[in-house]
Amino acid sequence: MSNSLGERVRQKRLSLNLTVQELAQKADVSASYIYAIESGQRGSRIEKLSKIAKALETSLPDIWPYDA
Asked: How far apart are CA 37 and CA 49, in angstroms?
């Protein structure tokens, strides 16, 4: 699996056959926010990442490549 947040979100979204708009709706964020994350233009707050992970039916560590 890729190391970048955006690539992980995109791969998981595609594996679930979700459009950006569908993921945004499920995660209660804007489609432009999802586009920005997937393209690497922005990071995300933990609260929004948690919503996105839940919408992707996965856990936060699966999409957030953070090494403490």
From this structure: 10
Q: pTM here?
A: 0.76
Per the structure, how many domains does the chain have?
A: 1
In a domain, 66, yes or no: no
For 13, the domain range is 5-60
CATH number at residue 15: 1.10.260.40
Please list the alpha-helical segments (H only) found in the chain.
Answer: 5-15, 20-27, 31-38, 46-55, 60-63
Q: What is the pLDDT of residues 15-32, one digit of tens each?
A: 999 999 999 999 999 999
Residues 6+ apart with CB under 8 A from 29: 48, 51, 52
